[in-house]
Design goal:
With about 290 residues, the protein is mainly alpha-helical. The protein is built from 14 helices and 2 strands.
Length: about 290
């Protein structure tokens, strides 16, 4: 007891109740579980965007295509658009089942485990990368470069002395024009990641419950979604940033191709969490419940 207990008993105790109220133990356990949960959610959200950030460079090397995403735009994501939503998950309220769970095994139920990596990298991250590449190929095709023409084109594309690279229709592109198109793709890939991260931060609100059960009452998170969208628009449309940071403005409809992928992420994870609730202890829980 923190008030009635002696100094000797306090020194020997593993836990001290500052208000001498045994109900505080329950409150403390709930707060500890909430902190652990929200840390997991924030990590899951942050890790997911690594896949759409890394895969463009892998495709650039393996398939020898023009670079889909630049290093500057990656910094925009990691140091800009992702910060507020990731922090906002710390303000998420506890899920209704938080005190009905079994105590976690400290040897197995770690903050980052293989299931969290599997969901973030192998599932949601892959959908996000698909969104980015879809937007990239749409813009390239709209400007005359079909996907088949892009394969193996990197050497000629990046040749500063080559002023006559032909697209799929025989039109010749100078080095300067090619780079403007490439940087426009960088901007579009960046925007597509922001759009799919809308769904990612929403699905990370809960580990098992549906977002309909949890609600959208975390206004720090809601504001974070608006902030990252506004920041992406600011980076794309502010005059002068095309020269300073190589971020080019996008046509309105180039924001749209990523929306179905964002919706797919939300539906996919809602279904996953539905199976978690319907079949506790089942295969889905063993493989995907982080």
């Amino acid at each position: 007891m923190g008030i009635a207990g002696s100094d000797v008993s306090k020194e020997a105790a593993d836990m001290i109740l500052l208000d001498d109220n045994f109900a505080s133990i329950v409150t403390g356990v709930e707060e500890g579980r909430l902190i652990f949960d929200n840390l997991k959610k924030s990590i899951a959200y942050t890790l997911t965007s690594n896949i759409p950030e890394i895969s463009p460079f892998l495709f650039f090397i393996v398939l020898s295509i023009p670079l889909p995403l630049g290093t500057v735009t990656i910094l925009f994501i990691d140091l800009g658009t992702d910060l507020w939503p990731a922090i906002s998950l710390a303000y998420e309220k506890a899920e209704s089942d938080i005190m009905s769970r079994m105590p976690r095994d400290p040897q197995k139920d770690r903050l980052v485990n293989e299931r969290l990596i599997s969901v973030s990298y192998g599932q949601i991250g892959m959908i996000q990368a698909s969104a980015g590449f879809f937007v990239y190929f749409v813009i390239m095709a709209e400007n005359g470069f079909r996907p088949s023409r892009l394969l193996g084109l990197r050497k000629h594309w990046d040749d500063i002395d080559n002023e006559a690279v032909e697209d799929s229709y025989g039109q010749e592109w100078s080095y300067a024009d090619r780079k403007i198109l490439e940087y426009t793709c960088h901007s579009a890939f960046f925007v597509s990641i922001v759009i799919v991260q809308w769904a990612d931060v929403i699905i990370c609100k809960t580990r098992k419950l549906s977002v309909f059960q949890q609600g959208m009452n975390n206004w720090v998170l809601n504001t974070g979604i608006l902030f990252e969208t506004a920041l992406a628009a600011f980076m794309c449309y502010t005059p002068g940033l095309d020269k300073a940071l190589r971020v080019y403005p996008l046509r309105f409809w180039w924001w749209l191709p990523a929306l179905p992928f964002s919706f797919t992420i939300w539906v996919y994870d809602e279904c996953r969490r539905y199976l978690l609730r319907k079949y506790p202890g089942g295969w889905v829980e063993k493989e995907t419940y982080y």
